[in-house]
Design goal:
Layout: E1 20-27, E2 34-39, E3 44-49, E4 58-62, E5 64-67, E6 72-79, E7 84-91, E8 96-102, E9 107-116
Antiparallel strand pairs: 1-2, 1-9, 2-3, 3-4, 5-6, 6-7, 7-8, 8-9
Length: about 120
């Protein structure tokens, strides 16, 4: 006897999908910098560096947000003007993050803290 696969209704976007995250970098090539990442419910986002007047320090890009449990959230998106792909794991319990930035030839690790702005 064959059984039909259960139908899966699309889930509502997680509550963080329309939020802004401020990343403060403590280690890595962005040490001492602060970036805000605004995520929209449509799968896009905008990031910009605070206190930096530079077109390469901001961009709109498609983004991926993932959350497997209540402890970790993953953010990943390209930064086309800067030429990097950034992936950041947020530890929701500690407020710390770990990131990997890659330009297709090399990668760099970075760490710091984060906070939700809204």
């Amino acid at each position: 006897m064959q059984t039909a696969a259960p139908s899966v209704a699309p889930s509502a976007p997680p509550p963080h999908c329309a939020r802004t995250v401020r990343l403060t970098w403590a280690e890595g090539p962005t040490k001492g910098q602060v970036h805000e990442h605004a995520f929209h419910g449509d799968g896009t986002g905008h990031w910009h560096a605070l206190r930096v007047d530079d077109a390469a320090a901001q961009a709109d890009a498609p983004c991926v947000l993932g959350q497997d449990d209540e402890k970790v959230m993953l953010i990943s998106y390209p930064a086309p003007v800067a030429g990097y792909m950034l992936s950041v794991a947020l530890n929701l319990e500690t407020g710390r993050h770990v990131a990997i930035a890659s330009n297709g030839k090399s990668w760099q690790a970075a760490r710091g803290t984060f906070e939700f702005m809204n």
